[in-house]
Amino acid sequence: MNLQFDIVEILKVTMVLFAVIDVIGSIPVIIALKQKVGTIDAGKASWVSMAIMLAFLFIGDAILNIIGISVSDFAIAGSILLFIVAFEMILGIQISKDSVPATASVVPLAFPLIAGTGTLTTLLSIRAEYNLLSIIIAIVLNVIIVFFVLKFLSKIEKLLGVGGIAIIKKVFGIVLLALAIKLFRKHTGL
Fold first, then answer.
1. CB 44 within 8 A of CB 105
2. Is the pTM here over 0.85, yes or no?
3. What digits encode the pLDDT tens for the residues 57-68?
4. How far apart are CA 23 and CA 18, in angstroms?
5. Fewest CB within 10 angstroms: 13, 120, 136, 161, which?
6. Are 169 and 93 within 8 A, CB to CB?
């Protein structure tokens, strides 16, 4: 297990994870989720997503192998969930009937929006390329960014306004739908 501190490597891994997590691009989804359930617990969502990423970094491949699920199967399941969330955003309908709003900070926020299949499969692939310490630090840095975006979501919401949120919600719904389809196609060979 390689645990060398390398600032350049940390920055590379941080940028890769930042791009995959895409918390900035997910702001419309998160705002829509907040409007649906009332509140988002920034701390809970951040801690849970970090725990998921760290656990998957160390034991994800083994867990999937034990239960007989490939990384592709995992990615396809996540793409279907993202498809549903995108469908709700675009059409302004509610498919999921989660009656416990407290769970929204965990599902679908911490998983699959923050620590989604793209993030988890990326963690598995970069583990072979980068120092373990760099990956752990990059996860922590990204979770700090996620926490601040979630913590100041109301200010971001005010800045965008109702009309801006509605427009961005539809646009990013289509983008999220396209990402779900891309992930599905990549792992199904269609």
1. yes
2. no
3. 999 888 888 999
4. 8
5. 161
6. no
